[in-house]
Design a protein that fits this description.
By secondary structure, the protein is mostly helical. It has one domain. Helices cover about 85% and strands about 0% of the residues. About 35% of the residues are buried.
């Protein structure tokens, strides 16, 4: 059990740092207050978790610890639902209703499409 927790924690450590860096780079280059950084991170994270689960289902990811490192740890640390929720609240409080609607819709729809896409990519590899 301790070994599993260490794998998950290590993945979370890597995922959290990657989330911060990628989100900052994207947001610093954005020209509006729209939360592009978090949107991109969540879509990329959704694609990755789809890939990892698809590969796991095919037996391409060896141990359960590695699967947990990649999915629960890395993707769990990388994606940012709590940040997503907080940014939506901020958009509503600021009266930016069109950005709120676009961000919430795009995050959910693109996240689902990315998970499906990641999973589908694993079906194409023989």
């Amino acid at each position: 059990m301790l070994k599993t927790l260490i794998f998950i924690g290590a993945g979370g450590f890597v995922g959290s740092i990657a989330r911060y860096l990628l989100s900052q780079i994207i947001q610093q280059n954005a020209t509006s207050s729209f939360p592009w950084g978090t949107l991109v991170v969540n879509v990329v994270g959704s694609l990755l978790i789809g890939l990892f689960y698809g590969l796991s289902e095919r037996g391409a990811i060896g141990s359960s610890e590695v699967r947990l490192f990649l999915t629960v740890g890395l993707c769990g640390g990388f994606t940012t639902f709590s940040t997503f929720s907080n940014e939506n609240l901020a958009l509503l409080r600021d009266g930016q209703f069109s950005f709120f609607a676009m961000y919430a819709f795009a995050s959910v729809v693109l996240g689902l499409v990315a998970v499906l896409g990641g999973f589908a990519l694993t079906k194409m590899w023989n």
